[in-house]
UniProtKB/TrEMBL annotation:
<keyword id="KW-0808">Transferase</keyword>
<feature type="binding site">
    <location>
        <position position="82"/>
    </location>
    <ligand>
        <name>Mg(2+)</name>
    </ligand>
</feature>
<dbReference type="GO" id="GO:0016740">
    <property type="term" value="F:transferase activity"/>
</dbReference>
<feature type="modified residue" description="Phosphohistidine; by HPr">
    <location>
        <position position="79"/>
    </location>
</feature>
<keyword id="KW-0479">Metal-binding</keyword>
<dbReference type="Pfam" id="PF02255">
    <property type="entry name" value="PTS_IIA"/>
</dbReference>
<dbReference type="InterPro" id="IPR036542">
    <property type="entry name" value="PTS_IIA_lac/cel_sf"/>
</dbReference>
<dbReference type="InterPro" id="IPR003188">
    <property type="entry name" value="PTS_IIA_lac/cel"/>
</dbReference>
<dbReference type="GO" id="GO:0046872">
    <property type="term" value="F:metal ion binding"/>
</dbReference>
<dbReference type="GO" id="GO:0009401">
    <property type="term" value="P:phosphoenolpyruvate-dependent sugar phosphotransferase system"/>
</dbReference>
<keyword id="KW-0762">Sugar transport</keyword>
<protein>
    <submittedName>
        <fullName>Lichenan-specific phosphotransferase enzyme IIA component</fullName>
    </submittedName>
</protein>
<feature type="active site" description="Tele-phosphohistidine intermediate">
    <location>
        <position position="79"/>
    </location>
</feature>
<keyword id="KW-0813">Transport</keyword>
<keyword id="KW-0598">Phosphotransferase system</keyword>
<keyword id="KW-0460">Magnesium</keyword>
Amino acid sequence: MSTIVNVEQTAFQLILHAGNAKSSLMEAMQAARAGNLDEAHSKIEEAKVELNHAHHAQTSLIQGEARGEKVELNILLIHAQDHLMNALTMRELVTEIIHLHEKINKKIIE
């Protein structure tokens, strides 16, 4: 029973931190659109911290399974992994969007 509770708690941690990262990434994109590139970069850093927390939660599950602790696959864990993967993809896209805003702003100033 305690393994199941631990998996559920870890899944909720993944969802929490991935969700926080996605919120920061949306704020980064909005800041870049408004021309506040320093704030955009700050929000990217916030997202990286949240993604790092999520990664640690995910790693704990992987290490447990490597030790022979079977992780029961359930919809909550699938949902959590989906959140994490979407946040990671979003980080790459938002980083590129911010880079494009920087290039556009540089061209406008020149």
